[in-house]
Specification:
single chain; alpha+beta; 11 helices; 11 strands; about 15% strand; flat
Length: about 425
């Protein structure tokens, strides 16, 4: 079989050469190390942690949905590199990345699935669907559990197991590196990123799940601690079992929590365990929220944990900028670089870059003050034009608004405003 880039098609609408087939090169002496480490590890806290159980922890769900929702709501424009910088262009890839990558789902759903897979499994995969000279016609999200990454003489190849869907027969697929978007998380070993579920969430989410189960069992038992009933005399085993069953049938459960217990023949109740507050169950659950937020790099206050204050400053603007810089930036950069090198592998003419202005923008008064400085005030030269400001605020351009204020008194744009 020929090498990955040994045979090319004619350039398409994106001025690139496409490979003759998405079939991957032959895999020789391939070894998959992705599932060796941690394969035989047993879950801590006596609770199994997988994708479904981890998302039952409210802190995990909140962090994953917050980061995924933020990234899926960002515009992802396509730019063309020019001699003096770059300019935004109308490109068919824009529709796929921002509106509909597949007839089966929207772009927002696609990006939330990609980010969720990256955060929980350590990798996000999407197949690039090409159609001859028509270029890229879609993206297919693939669950991380279906993908096996292997090395070959020409790089990485991806073996995708069939998707389990009713009334649809599929076969195993082998996809070449240039036709697979692969965004790896921390701990990348050359094949896969580190699975957060298998490693870092194994303890934190396991303890949180165990605490939830303990709390549920505590209230299921009528919010009573464990106790023992001391019976007078020497009851037979049959009498003890009858007493135990009678007690459980009459007093177990939240609905019977306040039913008075009637003890006869000198029976006494002895508490065996501490209550939930004394055993610091609430403190444990609060600490697990902070620990899970630390894993995802999410400030606890952004998922509703307000016991501690933030050091990012006060106000929506400071929090939004901090969230973008310290939480989202590491994911956005990986996504942008992977898209640019896979969508346009043979040209550097185009690029995509997330627009984070919506999350970093301040309140209305702060924005207006910043626009006045940008346009130029009190005779100072500006670095923004009126129409650039109006474009940021989603307003139509005005005549003469493309001239930059140089700070001179006869500048035609000096008297212009941003339309506020």
């Amino acid at each position: 079989m020929m090498g990955l880039f040994s045979k090319k098609r004619k350039p398409g609408r994106y001025d690139i050469d496409l490979p003759a087939s998405s079939e991957a090169p032959t895999v020789k002496n391939a070894v998959d190390y992705s599932n060796i480490f941690g394969l035989f590890s047993t879950p801590n806290a006596g609770v199994t942690v997988n994708e479904n159980t981890a998302m039952q922890v409210s802190a995990v769900y909140a962090c994953v949905s917050l980061i995924g929702g933020a990234i899926s709501s960002m515009p992802l424009p396509v730019y063309q590199r020019t001699a003096d910088g770059r300019k935004k262009v109308d490109n068919d890839v824009w529709w796929l990345l921002n509106e509909q990558p597949s007839p089966m789902y929207s772009a927002a759903v696609f990006w939330e699935a990609m980010v969720g897979s990256l955060l929980l499994h350590g990798d996000a995969f999407a197949r690039i669907i090409r159609s001859g000279s028509s270029g890229i016609i879609g993206f297919e999200w693939i669950h991380s559990a279906r993908v096996t990454v292997r090395s070959s003489t020409d790089g990485l190849v991806y073996i995708v197991q069939p998707n389990v869907l009713p009334f649809k027969q599929e076969e195993q697929k082998t996809i070449s590196a240039m036709d697979m978007i692969h965004i790896a998380g921390p701990g990348f070993n050359g094949l896969r990123g580190m699975s957060q579920i298998r490693y870092v969430l194994r303890n934190s989410a396991g303890i949180a799940l165990a605490a939830d189960q303990y709390s549920a069992a505590f209230f299921e038992n009528g919010a009573r601690p464990d106790f023992a009933v001391e019976l007078a005399g020497s009851p037979t085993p049959e009498q003890q079992e009858m007493m135990r069953k009678s007690w459980m049938e009459r007093y177990q459960g939240v609905g019977r929590a306040h039913t008075p217990a009637l003890l006869t023949n000198g029976a006494k109740v002895h508490e065996l365990t501490l209550n939930a507050e004394d055993s610091q169950l609430l403190t444990t659950r609060q600490f697990q929220v902070e620990d899970i937020c630390r894993i995802f790099g999410t400030p606890p206050f952004m998922v509703g944990h307000t016991q501690t204050t933030t050091s990012w400053g006060s106000g929506v603007e400071s929090m939004g900028i901090g969230f973008v810089k310290y939480t989202l930036a590491r994911h956005l950069t990986k996504i942008e670089q992977e898209l640019n090198r896979k969508i346009w592998p043979f040209t550097k003419k185009y690029l995509v870059e997330f627009n984070t202005a919506g999350l970093e923008r301040g309140d209305y008064k702060t924005r207006q003050e910043g626009y006045r400085v940008g346009i130029g005030r009190a005779g100072e030269p500006g670095w923004l034009t009126v129409n650039e400001v109006r474009r940021i605020e989603n307003m139509p351009p005005v005549e003469g608004g493309d001239q930059l204020n140089t700070g001179t008194t006869n500048d035609p744009t000096t008297a212009q405003t941003a339309g506020a």
